[in-house]
């Protein structure tokens, strides 16, 4: 427990000073994707559900936040909350369909339903179709903090991330989270113990969708636009990769994975062009074949080995 | 009678045919997915990429080596099948003892690699592939013109689907295959080389996707993205039909193609989403799928 406390402290200290060393917008992008990946990890790592369409929540909330702030004139904090709630509601609809099947079918259903929403976004007028929703104002937080300043916005985004991260950890270590783990380990046993497994799965799905939505809405605020890319299945694959690379079922894994992938994409984008996709695919294959525990998982194993040997 | 529900019969029949053509591709691909899943317990995400690869190899063969359509129809599936065997031997075989999800993730990574590689070389715009001379033109059926190539696609894919069904259900090899699907350890104990069967199954599934790709090359623009557009729809088809039955896959594939075609006539806005909507309805009414068994 103490070790984890040190980890939290170090991460927070690092994030507090980060914008003075690195371009703040890049760190904000990492934070958004880290929250997205943590939300995804709540499902794959702690409930054993592989959602292959998680981008739909990121994308939907991005559009809802953008539209409500730009067109309806919502203040930013209200826009974010409204967008996260919308994503959670969508999560309830998609989740209640998807949990009717398990395992591999669950993955295919979430992917297909996400694709359905993608086509809807492509056609409905308010998303701006292929052009996306441009020019979303950042506005003033609570009416007096000017978010057009990158540093102000940074600390707001950091606060959102810390809140989301805390909520996920609180969930994992709560009795509810313990039941989720029991479902992951042995669903039949959990049912025989009298747990309403479907209800637990659905609740985890809704929570994950809502937090993924919060990440998407925040991302819109940072970049001032929402596009179809966020709802595309490529993005769903990316969040799987981040979590896999960082370490599924570990607390810090998704954060490490998101930081690695976003930085990598940022570095490579103008150097290798469309080969980025090939590299992402190769990392996928590499992780599945020989690196299944991910960065944090491997480090943890290494640490255990060293302290065990002593 | 020149109209059906206020739609000119020519347009109606045209979309119906197009629906059947798309349905043939859904049928072939979902059949391949089902065969692979039965044997390897892996959902082959790279199926769409293999289909794209098939179309590209046909196009490249004609462009660089002057290999025509008919030889390509035979050669390309062989090459794609061999590629599948290499993938199975070098990567997939290490995953059988793990959770099914890893197979999906690995083949997803492979799909990204293939798609990225072709995009990098050829860009995302489509390459045209001309219809072979023997199959260009159309039959005049009196009430409509039936393009010969479309008719050929439907006939060829039905033939291949039927041959697959026959091989699995009616031959010795197919009996071994079904036995190995049911209980690999026991089948192995009877002296049947199960790892070899597994390898051949994946190779066959890949070849089927490659064959579908060659068939598709003249009707669709050959583009690196053609596979991923299709594979997600095929996933929905598989969820609707269930993967338990071969004939079920074929019927579901064709049926959904037709429904999609008809939607394009009556309510074009929903033509991209209708398959997914049907999937949602099927999940509500019959979660195991139309031909699936409740487990």
Oligomer: heterodimer
What pattern of helices and strands is seen along the backbone of chain A? HHHHHEEHHHHHHHH
Q: SSE order of chain B in H/E notation?
A: EEHHHHEEHHHHHHH
Termini separation of chain B comes to 49 Å
Largest sheet of chain B: 2 strands, antiparallel
Structural class of chain A: mainly alpha
**Roughly how much helix do the residues of chain B carry, as a percent range?**
over 70%
Radius of gyration of chain B: 19 Å
What proportion strand of chain B?
Answer: under 5%
Beta-strand content bin of chain A: under 5%
In short:
The complex is a heterodimer of chains A (310) and B (295). Chain A is mostly helical.
Would you give an account of this structure?
The complex is a heterodimer of chains A (310) and B (295). Chain A has 310 residues and is mainly alpha-helical. Chain A has a domain at 23-232. Helices cover 75% and strands 1% of the residues of chain A. Chain A is built from 13 helices and two strands; from the N terminus they run αααααββαααααααα. Chain A has helices at 2-21, 24-44, 55-70, 76-98, 104-123, 150-172, 175-185, 187-192, 197-223, 233-246, 253-272, 275-290, 294-309; strands at residues 140-141, 145-146. Chain A has a two-stranded antiparallel ribbon. In chain A, helix 1 (2-21) runs antiparallel to helix 6, helix 2 packs parallel to helix 6 (150-172) and helix 2 crosses helix 11. Chain A is globular and about 55 Å long. Chain B has 295 residues and is mainly alpha-helical. Chain B has one domain (7-285). Chain B contains eleven helices and four strands; from the N terminus they run E-E-H-H-H-H-E-E-H-H-H-H-H-H-H. Chain B has helices at 9-40, 47-65, 69-90, 100-122, 148-170, 172-182, 184-189, 194-216, 226-241, 246-266, 274-285; strands at residues 3-4, 7-8, 138-140, 145-147. Chain B has a two-stranded antiparallel ribbon. In chain B, strands 3-4 form a two-stranded antiparallel sheet. Chain B is globular, with a radius of gyration of 19 Å. The model of chain B has no long low-confidence stretch (mean pLDDT 89). The interface between A and B is large, with 42 and 42 residues.
